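Researcher: Structure for this, please.
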Amino acid sequence: MAQKKIGKQTLQFSSVPAIASAASVVGPMEGQGPLGRHYDLVFEDALAGEKSWENAEQKMMQYSMEIALEKQSLLTSDLDFYLAGDLLNQIICANFTARFLNIPFLGLYGACSTMAEGLCVAGILLEGGFAERIGVSASSHHDTAERQFRFPTELGVQRPMTAQWTVTGSASCVVERINSSGVRLTHATIGKIIDMGISNAHDLGAAMAPAAMNTIKTHLEDLGRKVDDYDLIITGDLGLLGNNLLKELMKKEGYSTDKVSDCGILVYAPEQDTHSGGSGCGCSAVVLAAHLLKRLQAGTYQRVFFVGTGALLSQLSSFQGETIPCIAHGVVLESTGGGQ
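Model: Predicted structure, token format:
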């Protein structure tokens, strides 16, 4: 059997689990963005017919998991575990979704890195033979996140240009231990906390860029690979400012940046005026489900390094003047050349 841990932080999945299906559900603003036609479901308004934004976010997560299962003609009972997380206190959207799905549940909190973290944990469980099939979800909602971390949107508080727009959306994946046609999950690089002393909650891209750099560099060194060994290295979510900072850091280390991008840049069009781009657990999740996996399935991409970046701050830590601890988890996704 191949050695499962390579170098400092990278795991190799010799059983090569695969993402069998994925689904994305978003709000109206995301539906108007560049990836609009690729989402599985776009709600007409941010409340999605519910009485609160929090209920709407939970509905998005539940729908995305149900659609992902439906694509494979599966029932919730066909899943061994459900891994999910969101941005809200005590990950309430994930908790309430797990209540509806009635699946053994592990709640995750990695902020914007939650989908990547979920895929890492799913890969470990599947590689270890502890499960055959796992559901992974992540969600965020612009209005729930603003109310919790900043100001209620009704106040109309002016946002600085460094700020990012929390994506209203959720995505889910069904990951299987044995699957010959899905997008293969070959490696995971588990990140570590990087805190460069930034405390501005409106400048998360700058706070997270060093964590992304640390994980990317460690991953390449662990596997003895180069940037050019990938069709794409994509972070989520540094936004415009953070992506530029990451590229500067990579250039200083001698790395090429031609194949480096960010989910927060792809999710909205410039004319939507989100300032520094998108963010939130749902951002990288919906870009993965609606865009990246489809390109891998089509063979447009053969190998992608998907690096989820998370700013692990809270209201309490911000009020106490704490700096922002950040993390980045990465998974290698490879095409099998076949469709779902």
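Researcher: Any notable elements?
Model: The first helix runs from residue 28 to 31. The chain has two domains: 5-176, 183-334.
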